Amino acid sequence: MLAILLAGSAGPLGASTGAATAESADGQAVPDETIPEIIVYGERLFPDVQPERSLDEEAIESYGVGTIDELIANLQAEVGNDEDAPLLIVNGERLNDLSEIGEFPVEVLRNVQVLPRGSAVRLGGKSGQRVVSLALKKQVRTVTVSGSQKLATDGNWNATEGETIFTHIRGNTRANIGIRGRDEDRLLESDRGIVQPDPFLPYAAGGNVVGYPFIGGEIDPALSAIAGQIVTVTPVPAGASPTLAGFAANANVPAVTGLGRFRTLRPDSANYEFNGTANTRLAPWLTANAAVRVGRTTTDGIRGLASGLFVLPFDNPASPFSRDVGLLYYGDPLHYRGRRSGGDFNLTFNGTFGRWIGNLNARHSYSRDLSTNDVLVQSGAIPIADGTNPFAGAPALALTSSQASSRLRNSAAQASFTGPLATLPAGTVTATIEGRLASYRLRAKSSFLPGGSAATFNRNEQSVRGALDIPLTSSGGFLKQAGNTSATVEIGRTHFSDVGSLDRYALGLTWEPVAALRLRASIEQANGPPSAQILANPVIITPESRVFDPLTGETVDVTQITGGNPDLFAEKVRIKRLGALLRAVPRLNLQFNAEYTDTDRRNFVSALPEASAAVMLAFPDRFIRDANGVLTAIDLRPVNFDSEREKRFRWGFNLNTKLTNPPPPKNAEARKAPTLLQVSANHTVILSDEIRIRPGIDPVDLLGGGAIGIAGGRVRHQIDGTAAVTAGGLGARVGLLYRGASSLDTRIGGVSDSIRFSPLTIVNLRVYADARRFLKAQKWARGLRLSVDVVNLFNDRQRVRDSQGGVPLQYQPGYRDPLGRTIEFEIRKVF
């Protein structure tokens, strides 16, 4: 009976009844004589759980997205992004990864339901997980082709994307193949009018002359006499044989090269991906699902120009000077390039053994990353060779490329069994037992350090987990006056070969005194080591990285060090939650939700933020300064922060209702006739958020001006909302993101100051139209959809000001949001 229930097309929330039908590309039901009529009767897997979201085909269409993974991303943003991804079930059967279904077009869906937090335990998931249930159409055979062009209205940037998807569904057999490509243009700092900081030395593409060895001192008394003033810098004049008079013509007015044309805000990038998935029933009690994905991404950007100080001896035949001088030249652009390739293979078996459900998953993934940075071969003062005329052509600056690469391989196998353990007066206790084996191997190489470096990191894992879903009272039976009450218990242990054994536990209590109200309290604690990449990634040294120094108030170009840190400790996270869900007006599907979360993190791992006064004072060895106190290098490799304690409250509502009430639909076109209104809004209030960077140091209040990065302190208020209206193949969806004000404390010259970040409101708009709505008689218009997606409709950017009203260079609007408003035009055809 359980096997039949799992195969039912109505999904896990209800029984499947009715005659079998096939469906055309646009979802219109047509009789299919090859599929026998089947009527299934059975119990619901979730008879006492009502969904947080329930979407039919019209509601799914209102999101205007093309694939299932895009739809789920939108739903997660509405209900609140969780640390644990939702548990996915398709036609009642569990999937272990979104890749097994995510690339299917949304046209294959009959309905989608999102179940509240805590519901996943009954199907073998974790205590804090939600469930996303997808019910597919019985028969679909389509080819979906889409192409889009995205551009920034401020100009100088666009992206092109194309995708083709082949889909076949027939009962429990389904297959999907997708090919996707995306290409993005480079965006330069000059394209957004970025004001450049003054260079530490007056380098220029055409060259400048300065005193040597005392840069900033007088170049040559003879030159000063001709110019009538002491000359400390002068540009190199044109010609292969310049005279002192030629150098005096522009004395103390150095040549300037705008670096904005040689620095990228966003690099060139290209991404290509192939994915395929297939599912079939091997036996009445067993199904299999296989998924494969391979992809490649490349990037190419610029971080300015190579710069060099050349020493021209006074006795060089080309020199008109009576003493040695310095020549400051810019050379070729400094490129940084990245390449990532990889893929994964995922195989899942779902079986039924009496009243128990079994799930076996095997997964293998690999990735290869290669980073290349152009660096100067020589440093310091470079002598001009005897007999060489530097004015006949700019001296060459020799560049080489330093590389860092990593190869990661990950293999894992997981088996779980879920089923009835015992019967209590209020119902059946559901138990889950799960075991997992995994191995990681990361090989890293880097040529950025002298002599190069190479290392191999290996980790093996063995884990076991058990969970119980225990009914305590039942509205239809035991202590029915108390409504439905249930408890969840979860405990697990994982042994890591490099760390040892770490534990996890979770407890939850759910109470529904009436059908309209659901209350849940939970506590969970998990201990885990940093990932293999965080521990063992290769060292990368990037010159000319632009950062803000909160101790001086200056924006400077420094040498930046990134990579892994093998000396990190395991972190511990404890999360306490109280949540409520109220169903207020059934005809509007109006729901109110509220959740309080208290998160306590110990030894939490984070890449060292670029700059904040607190971080610089806590990790002085990571921020290197010269004799004048100018920041010259920063080491951003990850560290353990001592602790963080955050308390937040999130509340909101959503409704989903039809504004018209037409007669029951007879086909797909009739289903699209009603006018559907969807509204969702959530307000998050951060009640407190403090970080203790190191033991013995006062905590940093992120709501009171403290910060651990250049983005500023924590935003106390955040609002996210969407509203959509759809009817008859036409739709519009508006999204709202509001982020409140924040601040960043600085200590410029030993004096405390504060940088203010203004509130930010972003409005997004997505509209679409089915061509069939306007061209009903044209067959070619069937399945054709045109859409326009506008991000940041009003081109709003956050404003950042210091106490004097000025804008620090690192906080210019072009840095905060390089693209600004973007418009994407998409054409999509389902054949």
TrEMBL record:
Subcellular location(s): the record lists: Cell outer membrane
What name does the UniProt record give this protein?
TonB-dependent receptor
The record, for PANTHER family, names: PTHR47234, TONB-DEPENDENT RECEPTOR
Keyword set includes Membrane: yes
Keywords, A to Z, come to: Cell outer membrane, Membrane, Receptor
Classification from the root reads: Bacteria, Pseudomonadati, Pseudomonadota, Alphaproteobacteria, Sphingomonadales
Q: What is its main location?
A: membrane
Checking InterPro entries in the record gives: Beta-barrel_TonB_sf
Q: Is Membrane included in the keywords of this UniProt record?
A: yes
The UniProt entry's GO CC annotations, sorted and at most eight, read:
cell outer membrane
